[in-house]
Design brief:
- With about 220 residues, the protein is an alpha/beta fold.
- It has a domain of about 130 residues: P-loop containing nucleotide triphosphate hydrolases (Rossmann fold).
- Helix content is about 50%, strand content about 15%.
- β4 and β5 form a beta hairpin.
- The radius of gyration is 20 Å and the shape is globular.
- The structure holds adenosine-5'-diphosphate and magnesium ion (MG).
- The site of magnesium ion has 4 residues, from α4 and β3.
């Protein structure tokens, strides 16, 4: 017979173990760094992505500083991020504010943790979902994916008399299996609801935390 102290100790151990497992599952892309160090990682990767895009320099200013701070807390799993650390990201903002680029930066940073965040443009998703490439469709339901620029595709396509709703279908399936999903869009949540219905809006809200980019287009 164990003493009550031993039992308590065991319960404590178990719950810590469980917490660790849970935390690990939710945070396999979290970095054990200070926020200053994380900021430096983001900055360096951002310059690398800028180079790949023939952009002279990745600029941090009032349009994106808040978003980048939020991303820093997200990657650290820092509570200063607010609610929703265990979700994917919903990056929104006007055209040309750097949403796609930020997504590419996130994907590069995930590579440091050996995580493959596959980026699909919304039009690519539409063309896969319209096709009869079942393997490609299946790949959209697995792993970590990002859908860049939802809203530029048509909501519905008629394919041989049946209706395909690419974004609705992918979001619904990934919601059901709790897959990490990342989104970028020019649409506001209200516009998302008007376009895709309140079910998609609610699911996205459950699946993702918002990061907002502001201001003028950076396209020259
Ligand atoms: N922080 C930044 N500093 C400098 N150039 C940027 C920055 N963010 C984006 N850009 C550039 O601005 C243009 C638009 O960026 P992009 O990510 O395509 O915007 P969005 O996806 O929001 O429309 C691209 O040429 C990109 O390289
Ligand atoms: Mg874009």
């Amino acid at each position: 017979m164990k003493t009550i102290d031993q039992l308590f100790q065991r319960i404590n151990q178990l719950s810590t173990q469980q917490q660790t497992i849970q935390k690990k599952r939710l945070s396999n892309f979290r970095f054990d760094l200070t926020s200053k160090e994380m900021g430096a990682v983001i900055w360096n990767i951002a310059q690398l992505v800028a180079q790949q895009r023939n952009t002279p320099e990745y600029i941090i200013d009032d349009q994106n500083r808040k978003a980048l701070n939020k991303l820093t807390y997200y990657l650290l799993g820092d509570e200063r991020f607010g609610d929703g650390l265990h979700k994917g990201l919903f990056i929104r903002g006007p055209v040309g504010t750097g949403k796609t680029m930020l997504l590419e930066i996130v994907a590069e940073i995930f590579k440091l943790k050996r995580i493959n965040l596959r980026i699909f443009n919304a039009l690519e998703i539409a063309s896969i979902m319209k096709s009869n490439d079942e393997a490609a469709k299946k790949r959209l339901l697995e792993g970590y994916i990002a859908i860049d620029d939802i809203g530029i595709e048509d909501v519905e396509y008629k394919v041989f008399g049946s209706t395909v709703r690419p974004i609705f279908d992918v979001i619904s399936s990934r919601y059901a299996t709790r897959r990490f999903t990342f989104i970028t869009t020019n649409l506001t949540p209200t516009e998302i609801e008007a376009r895709y219905g309140n079910r998609v809006r609610d699911r996205l809200r459950e699946m993702t935390s918002q990061i907002v980019l502001n201001g003028e287009s950076r396209r020259k």
